[in-house]
Amino acid sequence: MRYVTFFTFVCVLLTIQFLPAQAPDTLWTRTYGDGVGNCVIETSDSGYVIVGQSSWDRSNLIILKTDSHGDSLWSKTYGDTNFNDYGCSVRQTADDGFIIVGSTTSYGAGEDDVWLIKTNEYGDTLWTKTYGGSGYDIGKCVQITNDGGYIIVGTTESYGAGGQDIWLIKTNSNGQTEWTQTYGGNLTDIGNCVIQTSSNDYLIAGGTSNLTTHPGVWLIKTDASGDTSWTKKYFDNVAECDAYAECIIATNDGFVLCGYIYVNGFGHGCLIKTDFSGDTLWTKTYYYTPGSLWENKISEYIGDFTWSHSLIRTYDDSYLVTNSRLEIYGVFPGNVWKGFFFKVNENGSFLWNKSLCESIASYSGLLSVIQVTDSSYVVTGCQGEKLYLAKISSSVTGLKKSDDIITHTFSLSQNYPNPFNPSTTIDFNLPKTSEVTLKVLNILGEEVATIVSDRLSAGSYSYEWDASTVASGIYLYRLQASDYVETRKMVLMK
User: Fold this and answer.
1) First-to-final CA distance of the chain
2) Strands 473-481 and 434-442
3) Can you say whether the dihedral through the CA atoms of 416, 418, 421, 423 is positive or negative?
């Protein structure tokens, strides 16, 4: 009897071990009238800013500011309602204002132009710039560069080798062009995301569309002037497909890209992990089939398209990916759009999936995700015709507010000075000998610097971080020691 009981106990443990993790709880959801949220960031006052567009057709560019509960504080629109204008990417600048990139047909030289807008903290326009020629030119992503200027990636028909080419634009802090580069051939080459490395190089993520060749997800590494250092293609051995990367983040051992690949008439979300040379470490595709891990569906289900849009590295070193999915049915009421996100571990293995919004015959999707200072997740997108924002809890429990810190055990102090330029000091206390890491992250959760990675004895410690090579903005610094994790915000203002 004893052996039977022990065997049963072991079976229960194994069953629990291999069950997928439970998805976190939704804390709140908000809609704000007609519109689509393309990008969300956390602001220095712990609120959120969303940029996007007022509709899918004849739209204005919109920017919306909320408090930490998602309640609207103000909103602004830009553009002419008789044309199509939209915002794709936003960053908060050192003066608490915002820099926005997108596309405009209301202004500029041609059909569509890249549109860069600088605002104050209330969304009032300080200046705008357009870039482009007579063709179709759009901006998809903007980053603040280490010299205080901006780097923009998008797509151009006006310049380059033909068709559509990836377009990289470097400007100064006033939006004046310093240089531009194009990448591609005579096919449709799309640039969707750019990041700058600590050595001032750039990584561009995008893809190539051509159903008669082997296109693939495209990763381009350039030097500080935009000259190509190397390029890599992924999923390029699949005939008759489209493949794009929508987002790229840097990790401590390479890069991770998310996007989608169309194969045999259906679309799959994809993740790609590479080393620092762009060589593949692993790839994953994620899609729905009846009876799969996602959920069971009715028998009239035919197939679907899944797009992976944005990606972050979470505080527990996993990855969170936002998606939209079109489920196709052969019966009334027809097709269903869903917005969902999923979490995978550092090897790309599935942990959990959560659907948040859906609609019939009208687009719903989650287009942008961040992990905020209290460790929860905030996502934006569209539910039907409505701009959508939601906050979701996190399973990470080690992040504490300052009033929750047990001072007689571990503690992490607020950096000083704060704001700072270019260096600041970070203090922490250890009650026992511990393996300690102290890292600096940007607001996307990407690692910027490792200040400490060592085994330290009990005591008080003080470290200085010199940020002279990174751009102005909001940063997080995170202490991990034993089972203790603490994260705080700091502001670099050059």
Assistant:
1) 72
2) antiparallel
3) positive
Confidence category of residue 37, pLDDT binned at 50, 70, 90: very high
Q: pTM, whole model, 2 decimals?
A: 0.79
- Domain span(s) for CATH 2.120.10.10 in the chain: 24-392
User: 80-99 b/e with 16+ CB inside 10 Å = b?
Assistant: eeeebbbbbbbbbbbeebbb
CB 183 within 8 A of CB 204: yes
In this predicted structure, the answer to whether residue 207 has a pLDDT above a threshold of 60 is yes
pLDDT, one tens digit per residue, over 306-331 is 788 999 988 888 999 998 877 665 55
| Cα–Cα distance, 200 to 314 (Å, whole number) | 24
- The structure tokens 């009715």 sit at 298
The position carrying tokens 């992040």 is: 399
Q: Where are the beta strands (DSSP E) in 120-187?
A: 125-131, 137-144, 150-156, 165-171, 177-183
Distances in whole angstroms, Cα of residue 92 to Cα of each of 76, 130, 144, 468: 16, 20, 9, 18
Given CA atoms 309, 314, 319, 322 in this order, what sign does their dihedral have? negative
Supply the CATH classification number for the domain 402-492: 2.60.40.1930
Task: Using alpha carbons, select from 340, 333, 384 the residue that is nearest to residue 363.
Answer: 384
Q: Which residues, at least 6 apart from 80, have a Cβ–Cβ distance to it below 8 Å?
A: 60, 106
Which residues belong to CATH 2.60.40.1930 in the chain?
Answer: 402-492
Say yes or no: domain 24-392 is CATH 2.60.120.260. no
